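fyi for ur records
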Amino acid sequence: MNYLDTSYISDAQQMPIKQGTLDFLQGSHKDTVSQVIKGLIGIGGTTATYNANLVYILWGCSNDSNNSNYYNLKEGAVFYQGEVFYVAAANNISAPANWNLVITPVTATNADPVTFTSGAKYSVHNIRTMNLTSNGSTGVEFTSTDTIKLYIDQNNINTTIQNLQNQINNLQNFIWNYVPTSGAGSYKGGYSGTLRYGKDSLGWVHLEGTFKASNTGSSVIFTLPAGYIPDRDIAFTMIKEGAAVFSSRNYAVALFINTDGTVNDSQYGNGGDNQSSYYVTCAPYKAAS
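which gave:
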């Protein structure tokens, strides 16, 4: 972005405003907007790169007419040769019609005319807009392929949103598998509880619930089936039912999920504690492929 250095200005040293200074300031604003829009043009539309000979519809400017001989133009804005132009709504424009640059002096404010130091008076405040006429100055016809919209494809946006919603639904509504009390994959060694496991649509395995210990030391609680087994041994800390008991006996309890599918607990501390209950909430892990 162009930058005007004002560090030389002081109470003792003023800077006169010259034509080039005003041109510089106007050009700076124009260039900033231009570079941003040029960078966005590749996002949508029918042309991937900026072309100075095209008129880009930024918003609005649609034709509501059902008559091929006339355009009913909606309000909007266009980008042409580095500048943004407002487009007023207009009806019954004879077709075909080209985009046309309109320069309108400002009359609604106390601005023009301006008296110059020579005594001459000039109107210098102008509003630059676009409209459609049969002999428009740009030579770009309204329905021409040279007139394209700058847009992000709404269909792609809707598809992306739907895909995200589907993933959220899968995360929230995937099927839980409770560890059975008998048969394949059931609790072993007298363990019991409400443990359950499931896998979301992204392949992350979740394990949670409670179980009651049957003995001290290390023992297998149950075995996970294929598709839920991690690619490396992992361990999680568990919470023991009854904080006072946990604190007074100083237990550190871990749950191990092993690459052979076995899930076991290990209690380290001052002695055993048969029939204690433990709460399990494991961080999701990736199942081995």
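The radius of gyration is 36 Å. thats all i got for now
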